[in-house]
Amino acid sequence: MAQQGLATQPAREAAPAIRVGTLGDEIKKLFDSVARRAFEIFQSNGQALGHDVENWLQAERELFHPAHLDVSESAEGFTVRTEVPGFKAKELEVNIDGRRLTISGKRETREERKDKKTVYSEYCSGQLLRVVDLPADVKAEAATATLKDGVLELEVPKAVAAKKIPIASKAA
Asked: Measuring CA to CA, which residue among 61, 52, 126 is closest to residue 88?
C-alpha cells in the first residue's frame, strides 16, 4: 500500500489537513456519491426510464458547489485563496500530488423544530471539489492552510529548481 505523507499546520487557527498522495480514491468517493444521489432521484421520480442524464446532472448540481480560486505567484511560492462559505476546517481536505492541488469538502446540516403537533425538519448537504494544476513544482510537505471567515488560504512554497553544476576540466 502506498504511503501518504501528512503536512502539518502551524497552530494559527484550525485548518484542514494537507495530504500528499493520489487523487484516485477521492474521485471514486465523489463518483459513488453522485451515483447514489442520481439513483435516489430516479426512485423519487417513480423509477421513470429515459432520464438518466438528467438525474445525473441534477445530482451533480445538488452535491457540488464550485470553489472559485484566486492563485497568485511570487518568487517563493503560490498563494491560493478560495471561498468556502459554511464549511468548517474539519469538513475540508486539501491534497497536493505533484503540481496538482485538490480542495474538497463535505458538509451536512440538519435543523429540526417541534411545535406542538407539527414537526419541522430541514436537511442540507453539500460537497465541493476543485482541482487545479499549479504552473511549477511545489514542496507539498511545507504547505500551510488557514480558514478564516469562510475563506481558505493556502501558502504553497515552490520546490527548489534543479541547478546545473559546471564541470571544470583539469589538465593532466
From this structure: 126
Total Cβ atoms within 10 A of residue 34? 20
Tens of pLDDT, residue by residue over 2-43, are 444 444 444 445 555 666 556 777 778 888 888 888 888 788
Cβ–Cβ under 8 Å, residues 147 and 84? yes
Cell of 165: 553544476
| Helices (runs of H) and strands (runs of E) counted in the chain | 2, 10
Q: Please state, as a whole number, how many other Cβ atoms lie within 10 Å of the Cβ of residue 156.
A: 27
- Phi-psi map region of 46: left, alpha, beta (phi>0 left; psi -120 to 50 alpha): left
For residues 118 and 133, what is the distance between their CA atoms, to the nearest angstrom? 51
Amino acid at position 61, single letter: R
For the chain, the farthest-separated pair of C-alpha atoms sits apart, in whole angstroms, at 101
pTM: 0.56
Q: Could you give all domains of the chain from N- to C-terminal order, each with its CATH number?
A: 16-157 (2.60.40.790)
**Which pLDDT tens digit goes with each residue over 83-128?**
888 888 999 999 998 888 888 888 877 666 666 665 655 556 677 7
